């Protein structure tokens, strides 16, 4: 799949933008703050229903405007699909597919992309929420219906936390909260599916992760992923890695041997933790408190890996994600986006990365300095200045 045309209205610093694209590599070049990343961010939003830079939509709408529109013509195998999304300051966002209204959560079914940006260093060094988001975005692209499951889980979690906080404030015991059992049942039902999907995905990422890391670094540092589950006693907030490091799992192949009865283990954790939850007014077990531990040579990458190793690990995770989408998607390759990546790499790793991504149908690169981008990826160059596409050129590479 590739983006044949991208149109933006009142998106970020673009009042209007029209850009024709094609297969192969395209580099967006311009000084910092001109709008290069805004173009690729818009493409990524259609795939993940979120920005890789901000948590909300308000910053995406141009100042003084009530709404922003992202419109992309997607092409695969001679078939074209027009995907449109309107981001609103007030009210729900709206989406269209070939000019017909659809639910916004349907868009990832058609628009597949994988974006790597400097912010992704937080996948290795940041909080558990960053790693959960990485997994969930990939899950939704592969299985769009999970967006609904995750949304339902968040609503149940919010209601349950509200009840727990109310009980704490009023000094109520669990026996006086009959509705808590109802929320527990829904929490366990929805949360167990999310946990199982994440654990399975972690297993599938193992082999492509190792291959991608070797392709970038030319060394076998044994990158691994291990689930750290709160329902099994894992505590990401306390950096308790024992559960993950001794888990009965294999992340080097295509599958993970999962413990039986996720729902039963979840329900038991809820029962065991209820006194603490009533005391703290918050839900203490579930996918919202899980993590995935990243290991290099058997040691946690967070805290042990160097800056270069952390950068390579994060990039390898994105490339592994792209490989899974390429393998399973009926629309072919995802659009691969490298946002200001090459400035952080030495010459050898730039060349190795360029070779690793060269086989994807469409690769979009942003750079402040064109010389940072390896020559094989500079077939087409688009210059950006202050929210305007000022010129494009094609080289003979």
UniProtKB/TrEMBL annotation:
Keyword terms of this UniProt record? ATP-binding, Cytoplasm, DNA damage, DNA repair, DNA replication, DNA-binding, Nucleotide-binding, SOS response
Read off the PROSITE patterns from this record: RECF_2
Q: Which BP terms from GO are recorded?
A: DNA replication; DNA synthesis involved in DNA repair; double-strand break repair; SOS response
What sequence ranges are listed for the domain AAA+ ATPase? 22-388
Record has Nucleotide-binding as a keyword: yes
One GO cellular component, as annotated: cytoplasm
Predominant location: cytoplasm
Protein name, entry field:
DNA replication and repair protein RecF
Q: Which organism is it from?
A: Agromyces bauzanensis
């Amino acid at each position: 799949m590739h983006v044949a045309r991208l149109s933006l209205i009142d998106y970020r610093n673009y009042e209007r933008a029209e850009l024709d694209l094609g297969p192969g590599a395209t580099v967006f070049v311009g000084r910092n703050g001109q709008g290069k990343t805004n173009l690729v961010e818009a493409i990524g939003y259609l795939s993940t229903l979120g920005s890789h830079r901000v948590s909300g939509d308000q910053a995406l709408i141009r100042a003084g405007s009530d709404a922003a529109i992202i419109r992309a013509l997607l092409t695969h195998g001679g078939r074209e699909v027009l995907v449109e999304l309107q981001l609103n300051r007030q009210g729900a966002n709206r989406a269209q597919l070939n000019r017909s209204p659809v639910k916004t959560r349907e868009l990832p079914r058609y628009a597949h992309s994988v974006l790597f940006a400097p912010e992704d260093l937080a996948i290795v060094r940041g909080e558990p929420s960053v790693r959960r988001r990485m997994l969930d975005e990939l899950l939704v692209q592969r299985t769009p219906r999970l967006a609904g499951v995750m949304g339902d889980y968040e609503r149940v979690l919010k209601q349950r936390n509200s009840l727990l906080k109310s009980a704490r404030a009023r000094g109520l015991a669990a026996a006086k909260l009959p509705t808590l059992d109802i929320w527990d049942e829904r929490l366990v039902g929805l949360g167990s599916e999310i946990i199982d999907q994440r654990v399975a995905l972690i297993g599938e990422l193992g082999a492509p992760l190792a291959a991608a890391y070797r392709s970038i670094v030319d060394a076998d540092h044994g990158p691994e992923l291990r689930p750290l589950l709160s329902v099994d006693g894992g505590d990401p907030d306390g950096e308790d890695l024992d559960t993950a490091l001794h888990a009965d799992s294999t992340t080097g192949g295509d599958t993970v041997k999962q413990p039986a009865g996720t729902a039963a283990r979840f329900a038991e954790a809820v029962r065991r933790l209820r006194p603490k939850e009533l005391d703290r007014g918050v839900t203490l077990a579930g996918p919202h408190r899980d993590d995935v531990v990243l290991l290099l040579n058997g040691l946690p990458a967070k805290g042990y890996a160097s800056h270069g190793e952390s950068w390579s690990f994060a990039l390898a995770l994105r490339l592994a994600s792209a490989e899974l989408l390429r393998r399973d998607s009926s629309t072919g390759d995802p659009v691969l986006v490298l946002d200001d990546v090459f400035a952080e790499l030495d010459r050898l790793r730039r060349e190795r990365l360029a070779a690793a991504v060269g086989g994807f149908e469409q690769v979009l690169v942003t750079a402040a300095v064109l010389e940072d981008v390896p020559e094989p990826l500079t077939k087409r160059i688009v210059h950006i200045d202050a929210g305007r596409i000022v010129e494009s050129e094609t080289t003979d590479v």
